[in-house]
Amino acid sequence: MCVYMQWEQVAAKLDTGRPAVACMMRYKVIEQRSRGQGRFQPDEEQRIEEAVRLYGPNWGEVASHCGGGRTRQQVMHHYKNTMKPSRKGKWLPEEDDLLLQVLTIQIDW
Asked: Which of 47, 74, 46, 49 has its CA nearest to residue 60?
């Protein structure tokens, strides 16, 4: 519960309308990028869309279909939080920078 409340503080400091869980998940994406995993590329997103049409929300099958070494969790979260039309949209680079700034300055882990 305490960890969730810290992410609530981060979301409030961002003031972008994104929920705490989205901030936490985006931070994990940023961490992965720093470890060399990198952003999903447009061709990966096309393969994900194709696989979701073929397999539905069977994320293990979708990840296998896409190749590229992404886990089913990575593929599922990317689809649900970035690609799915009902979401707010892709995170902007400015939002990434702001998220990192808020975490660095405002939150004492």
From this structure: 74
CATH number for the domain including 85? 1.10.10
The domain of 106 spans: 41-109
Question: 39 falls in which pLDDT band (50, 70, 90)?
Answer: confident
Diameter over CA atoms, the chain: 45
- Main-chain phi, psi angles of 97, to 5 degrees: -60, -45
Residue 4 has pLDDT above 70, yes or no: no
Name the band, by pLDDT with cuts 50, 70 and 90, for residue 67.
Answer: confident
Is residue 92 situated within a structural domain? yes
Domain total in the chain = 1
**DSSP tag of 106:** T
Q: Which two tokens stand for residue 48?
A: 């994900």
Average pLDDT for 1-22: 82
Domain presence at residue 59? yes
